[in-house]
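Notes continue from the previous slide.

Worked example: a multi-chain complex. Inputs as given:
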Amino acid sequence: MQPILASVATAVALAVTAACGRAPADVARAPGAGKAARIVSLSPALTRTVCMLGGKSAVVGRTPWCEAPDAVVVGTLEDRNLEAIAALRPTLVLRQSSVADPALETVAASSGATIHTWHFDRVEDVRAGLYPLARLLAEGGIPGADVAARDLLARHLQAITVPVRSISPVLFLFSVDPPMAFGSGTYVDDLWRAMGGVNAITKAGYPTMTAEDVIRLAPSAVVVIGRGPLPAWLGSASPVQVQLDAPDLLEPSARMLVDGPVSLHRVDDSIAAARSGG
Amino acid sequence: MTTLRFQSPVIVRGTFVLAPGELAPAAGRVTVLIGPNGGGKTTVLRAAAGMQLPEQGAILLGGVPVHSMPAAQRAARMALVAQRPEVGAPFSVRDVVALGRVSRPSAPERIEHALARTGLTELADRPFHALSGGQQQRVAVARALAQHEPGGVLLLDEAFAAVDPPEAAALVREIRAEALAGATVLAATHDLSVASALADDVWCIAGGRTAAFGDARELLTQQALPRLLGVAVAEAHGARGTIAVADYGAILPKAPR
Amino acid sequence: MMHRRPMVGLALVAAVSCLAVAARLLVVRTLDGSFLVGWPGPTLGQFRGDAVLVACAAGAALGASGAILQTLLRNPLASPFVLGVTSGAGAGVAFASLAASMAGIAAPTGAALGVPALAGALLALGCVLLLSRRHGALDPVTLILGGVIVGAIASAGSTVAESLLPPERRGLFNGWLFGRIPDVPDPGALAACAAAALGLTGLGAAWGNRLDGAALSDDEARSIGIALGPMRTAMFIGCGVATAATVALCGPIAFVGLLAPHCARALVGARNRMLVPGAALAGAGLLTAADALRQWIDVGGGRLPLGAVTAVFGGVAFLVLLRRTAAGWMS
């Protein structure tokens, strides 16, 4: 019986792979393939991505900031409750870190779970990670995952192929006191440039600046992503100020892939409106 | 002339009961406090300075209870040199002596005079902490001299402990000069030869009680001291009369011949 | 080094601090790494001017507090930060924000922050003083140890309070726990801090001789005519107020309160009538210089937090100073 099941499973996997056009990286190695997935996620971005792929019901363990209210809080990436994780008998443990966690590996091995590490920093990371993640979910009994992934990618590509009108340098801030920006090599920068825009910051990463730096930069528009009052001095930096409460742009996940370009288009519309109106 | 009177003060929950009735170190004379360690010499001086409130009785300075006098008023009439000079800042010697004038009218010449009297003029600009223990004690005495007004009270607690003989001689001379000018001096010391040079009167405190109070010529003797201090005493003859000296050799067995 | 002319030393301290102010006002490094020298005009210049005002007010408050604490506690290591006062004030602010969040009201801002900051500062100082009482006197070693421990506990408390805040209320703490000079300082907080700095400096200078007397042992200090108890209480409260005002304005800043008195003492001498104003001037200059340095150093991630600059440079400078001056305090 066992060898037949195994070959059937492999055949199904190969068929699904052929449909998606991506090689399954670790399907043959995944133990518990065919078992219902029980996922512990130590990353809110990964949890959100899993949910968007249709796997919300499979998430049994989460961090305090993950959006999966039925799951049990098992701590954070740095401070995870190993007993709680073991008690959930997970099949998959998802985390985002470049540092190995031997204790977690031991716990996972004893429960028969596998740990998967992703790095969702840039748009390319999320794009490349969607199919493998969907594959894991599909094996775990969530049939629509592969289709969902394909659908998400299609929506993403559709959104970013529409160019923005604003082609002069725009500054994207996620904090105003002190001013902190999305520099080059960040996912907002990736999205904006893919849509034909220009980032006012050429420095890499998320530089902290002073008010004077921002004013001196004199971007054609300042976009503040987040809530809270805007300081008066922003007016001296640029005549166009746009504030957007867009949580999708504050976290590199599948939601960022799909909703991010939509939010950025709204930003583009606001900039255009501000320019023509004032 | 400020008078200092002890009216049967009881201090520290009855541990120290100074003589019943009244006891007053005389003005214009040096009263030396002698007695064993822990016997109460420091307590007497601290109580006289108003640092310790008697539970019964009183200590009067010029007729007013010391403890309740405002600090500035008391400082005008009484100066204290405590047992171990502590200066918690990198002051110079002159700065420390000048502290004696902190709540008194400014008088730079008093400071220089005090430095000269204690032989500290050359050291005046050096950091206090660079001095030896004995030199630091002299600085404390100089400070008290700078503060002290003629006719006031001078309280000295073991001011000679680390001082070497030539420096001690200078200090004895200055303290006696203050007494001659009308001060009431109450000085505690272990050193019997210093006591002999300094004392007009002797006040012996042991076990928190006054064991004796009287003229130095009667008490600083070979007959009286062993009973008071529990140590063998020899006598020598000096410029001012008899000098009492502790005879440590008296407790050792004679070497066999 | 004995000082026949403390006024000259004071003038020297003022001159060096003015240099630091000039550097902050006129020299800046832009994001792409080039240095710009010169006055940039009113719009940009206002930021620099505000930063200088904040740095001078906070630095003066910390410097004066540090000088007074070092004198009163007879300890060259005493300072608002080492004694846990700064961290206590920070914890006060953190818990006030948490309480406001739990009650559903807006967190206190600006000068109103000074109230919980003061409560935290005085509570921390009280704990440290109680912990180090020995036979009625303050043991110097326990004082510093107690200060470090109370400071650590207060910092931990701040971290706990911050982690319990919901994300949207955390705005205040974006780098605040390290100390930062805000781009747009709250005018109430700035005025309060400047007033506290001026008041404490004036009081310290006026009571300079009495503060000097506090360097003696308690008995001798009283015997030279100083009302030690009331003076200590007043000065401790004054230092608490000044520290709390600094924390309310720009968060907890380390090392300035420790270093400024030592720098001033080297030029002005140890007598408090000159030392306290000297330390205030030195503190203003040090903090302004730290803010200028922070603009000039580029480690790739943008601007450094101010607290990082004061900690690194201040810490190293203090180690050097400690070796050279510790001998002057103890025999």
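Summary box: Strands of chain C lie at 27-29, 35-37, 133-134, 137-138. Chain C has a mean pLDDT of 87.
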